[in-house]
Structures are given as C-alpha cells and as structure tokens.
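Provenance and format

Records in this collection were gathered into a single text stream. Each protein contributes a sequence line and a token line. The two records reproduced below are adjacent in the stream.
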Amino acid sequence: MGFRASPRGRTALREELFQLIQTHAYRFREEPFTLASGRKSRHYFNCKEITLHPQRLELLCKYIVEKHLPESGLDGEEAFGGLTMGADPICFGIALEYRKQLKNVFPLIVRKQAKDHGTKNLVEGGVNAVKSCVVVDDVITTGGSTLQAIKSLRDAGLEVKACICILDREEGGRKAIEEEGIQVFPLFKKSEFGSLD
C-alpha cells in the first residue's frame, strides 16, 4: 500500500522522473488527505514539488518534449495552456525546451476568472498567434480544473487538440475530459505508485 517499485521497461528519463515524483511529490498515509476536489484519499501528490523546482521542472519538460509528446502523436503542436497555476510552469518549461530546438511554441495562461479591468481576457499569451493548443494540468482527479481550462480556451477561439498531465489519479477525470472529445495522455497513473483507495 505504500511505495511500489516502478514497472520495468521504462526509459531512463521516465524512470528518473518517476523516482523524483515518488520521493518528493507522493505521500501515503492511513488517515486520508482532503483533495482540492473535496474527495478524501490516502494517496496525495503535490506535483508543485516537481514543477516549482528548477532542476526537476527541466527534467519533466525534457521528458515531455523528447519522449511523451512524440509517443502520444503530439509532436509539433503550436501552444500549451492550462488553468493557472498548476499548468503555468509546465507550459513555460515546454516552451523553453522547444526553444532549444529553435522552435516557438506558445505557453498560454488560463485565468480562473476574468480581471475586472483591462482586456478582461481569460486566456493570456499568444492566443492570436495560434489556432490550436494542448491543454495541460499537473494532476487530474475529477477533471474539473482541466474542463474549466478547455472551455476558456475554446471560448478564446482555439481548438483543443489533446490533454497532457503529470498524473491521472484514475478517479473519473480522464473519462470526463474524453467525453468532451479530448484524448488524455498522462505521464503517470496513481496505480503506478500504490494501490488504489
């Protein structure tokens, strides 16, 4: 029920990332945590321990750009965006990783609510420079924050082509997103780290 050995056959990069998440972001305890969705779980993932640490974020985005996106058939996308703030560092990191290949891929920030001044845009970034994007989240549980981001991105006139996340908690969120016609490509699943609740 605690930590589980990672499955065999992983790339070295994915294995290193798995170990970082297991060591720094994953917690298990008998007394359940309360999640952002309001649900209770003995498994908790604080992926900000990855995305807000420069070295770990660099490894994450290197893996996403070099391995995960090509394997998911998503290499060559124009933009990556998601609900602030879980998605922000991932989107910035992906954009910077693509700059190493001399490619411009735009990070988009989706606000939780519009400002009451200025342009009042819900989506910030190179919206007018792109026609489509991949929606990004750190952890998907019920899918609520991802669905909110999808609606805002679509309302801004963008085609949302797919979804990537660091972790799918396997609690219905992926199904809810895919019911919107958007395929979800998680890097990891909760069941890889320990038994499901």
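Adjacent record:
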Amino acid sequence: MIRVLVVEDEPVAADAHRLYVERMPGFEVAGVVHSGGEALRFCEREPVDLVLLDFYLPDTHGLAVCRSLRAAGLPIDVIAVTSARDLALVKAAVSVGVVQYLLKPFTFASLRDKLERYASFREASGEVTGQAEIDRALGTLRTTEAAPLPKGMSAETLDAITEALAGAGEGLSAGGAASAIGASRVTARRYLEYLADNGMAQREPRYGQVGRPEVWYRLRTDRA
C-alpha cells in the first residue's frame, strides 16, 4: 500500500482529498494535517510514501516543506495540490522534487489519473536496457491530453464554474453561478449541465414557496 499524507489547511478540502485517496486501490491515508509544521513532524515519526501538498499553508509555503523533506533525507514523493498557476512556481516545484502538479479545484477523476500514474512509475523496477525504457518510465508521470470540450465552451470558464461550486458548500443555482463568474444564466447553466452530465456535479431540485423547483448543482466527491 502507498501511504499518503494529506496536507491541506481548509478542513472541507482536506476531508474531500482524504475521501478521494481512500477510494483508490493500493493507496491508504496515513494522516491528514493542516500546516507545514505538522506535515514535517508527521513525516519524521510515521512512514509516508507520498504527500498531497497544498502550497498556501498558514505557517509556511509548500516549497519550504519540500525543501525541508529533502534536507532531512526523507524519501517521500510530493504531489502539489494547489491553486497556484504561476509557471515560475511550477518550475520551482520541479526543482525541489515535486512529481506531479494538480490545480485546484479538481475532480476525483483528475486526482485518480495522477495517483494511477504515480503508482505505475513507483512499481517500475530492475535495470533498463536502453534510453527508450527510461523515457517510457518517466512518461508514465505525464498526463495525456484531455478530451476537447464541446464547441463554444472554454476551459477557463469551466475552471471558473468548478471553482465557484467548490467554494459553495450548499451548491449553486444557474443564477448563483452566473453571478459568481460574471456570465449569463444561460452560459452558467450550460457549464453546470456539462459537469453534471460528466459525473462531476450532481443536480438537486430546490422547492420554493410557489412554482416549479429550481435546479441547484453541487460538486460530487463520491464518484469520478
């Protein structure tokens, strides 16, 4: 079993990440902590193979945690789980040994792909016969290109809708999502329906005092 430490300062997100890992065959949650200091102390006293590491922690930055792990000689791999989109930060993450980089907010399917590729890379052993085998081994960490979105939809707007849902524990209506991202209700509903049709969100009818129920949407944590 690959033992995973979840490092995330937001309790709701930490719990979601824990649930995601628990759904993965071959992985188990070693622990959940909410700061860099806690993460380092945990890794010093408990066996950990992989850290799911948020970068924006209340006491330090995730890069500092990575450097401390390396300085302590701990053979622990790191998958960055962060909203940081600065390419300079991505390059810095690579330089301190981060093996995967996953942008928030994300779905279970996205994390599953990262973990499956990490497991495949970790399982490789023995001596290679040439450069091609080394390239294939390293290639297991690379994510394949995502399927294209339907015509007229953009990844930026989809990210914005997903992020708005992630921050709304009780879910959002099309009108609420439209207000959150500054788009029309029709546009917001199209993206919300896309998320629901692809299993990343669930629809919930909400009944008011009169008229037909309004459909609300929530991110799903129980399936891909």
